[in-house]
Design goal:
Oligomer: single chain
Number of domains: 3
Number of helices: 16
Order of helices and strands: HHHHHHHHHHHHHHHH
Structural class: mainly alpha
Number of strands: 0
Strand content: under 5%
Largest sheet: none
Length: 343
């Protein structure tokens, strides 16, 4: 009974923390809404898809791969019905009230997923890694920063949240497998991140430790491939055409050496790679049961996947989805640094 009460208190405290953090950071939700409604950044517009699923005017069925991210989009449905109307200065003309409302709902959903992912990162550090509250706070801050390198004005916060959720339950194979299979209709990047990471670990490390998790990840990728084959939404067919990979890689490499490519493709990977390498070097002799320096290979591997399957400036964004894998060494290194005597 005591353990149940402790678990309930933890859940309530976490829910309260999420609510407080959301209240403190609520201007971010308005910023996301403005970025989306004014199309400040190139983005995937899910508002017509949300309207289509809700049966509202202005709806349109989405193309591949966006249409398969069903849970990410439908998570905005409660906000569509509950949020009050927003009035913005200089709102672009020609936008229907339904479209503005759907965009506001998607912004709110992404904001909540961003805040929830930070809270879950805290719990991952404290509950699973047995670290202290300062390390947990660092993990939450790290995930908030990571979101800036992804696309917080899109559905990326939902994917990063599910990546952290899967890491939280990685020792519980049934729950972990269920999360990865369900992730197929959240965002395909989740299964790809785990398939890449666990393939590296099983091929170069210990297959006995993470073999079942690797099978779950590969199964999720195969489930996504089956979804593509059965549903056959139009759009981005080149992602299933191996002959298109090399031209796409060459095109993306050329784009990566431009100023914009350096900012969006190169710098995020270099920053993450450098920070993680530094943390592992400083933590020499300290090892976690699951995580290790071998995980550094995930960063260039995910960058390679992005070069082959995406266009132009998506490398940093894709790599950001794998950043939660490095919470343990970075949080440990932060703790070591914070506890050093002042000079």
């Amino acid at each position: 009974m005591s353990a149940v009460c402790d678990r309930c208190r933890t859940v309530l405290a976490t829910a309260g923390g999420v609510a407080l953090l959301a209240l403190i950071l609520h201007p971010v939700a308005l910023i996301l809404f403005r970025l989306m409604i004014f199309n400040t950044f190139p983005r995937d517009d899910y508002a017509p898809m949300l309207l289509w699923w809700l049966g509202e005017a202005g709806g349109a069925a989405a193309q591949s791969p966006y249409g398969y991210r069903l849970l990410s989009v439908l998570s905005a449905a409660p906000f569509y019905h509950l949020l009050p109307p927003f009035t913005l200065t200089n709102l672009p003309g020609g936008l229907s009230a339904e479209y503005v409302k759907a965009t506001a709902a998607l912004a709110a959903s992404s904001f909540v997923a961003l805040v929830a992912s930070a809270a879950l990162a805290y719990r991952l550090a404290v509950d699973r890694f047995r670290l202290g509250r300062p390390e947990g706070a660092f993990a939450a801050m790290f995930i908030v920063v990571v979101q800036l390198y992804a696309a917080p004005f899109s559905v990326d916060p939902h994917a990063i949240f599910v990546v952290i959720l899967a890491l939280y339950f990685i020792d519980r194979i049934v729950v972990f497998t269920a999360i990865l299979i369900a992730s197929v209709i959240v965002n395909e990047k989740i299964a790809i991140v785990f398939a890449v990471w666990l393939t590296i670990r099983c091929a170069l490390g210990s297959a006995a430790l993470l073999g079942r998790q690797w099978i779950a990840a590969v199964t999720a990728v195969l489930a996504y491939a089956a979804l593509l084959a059965l549903v056959r939404m139009p759009g981005h067919g080149e992602q299933l055409d191996p002959t298109a990979y090399l031209p796409t890689v060459l095109q993306n490499i050329a784009a990566s050496v431009t100023p914009r490519g350096l900012v969006f493709n190169i710098v995020p990977c270099v920053l993450l790679l450098g920070a993680v390498a530094w943390s592992w070097r400083s933590l020499a002799g300290r090892r976690d049961r699951i995580y290790g320096p071998l995980d550094l290979l995930v960063i260039p591997a995910l960058a390679g996947v992005a070069l082959a399957l995406t266009q132009f400036y998506q490398v940093g964004r894709v790599v950001a989805h794998g950043a939660p894998l490095f919470i343990w060494p970075l949080a440990q290194q932060y703790a070591s640094w914070a506890r050093r005597p002042r000079i």
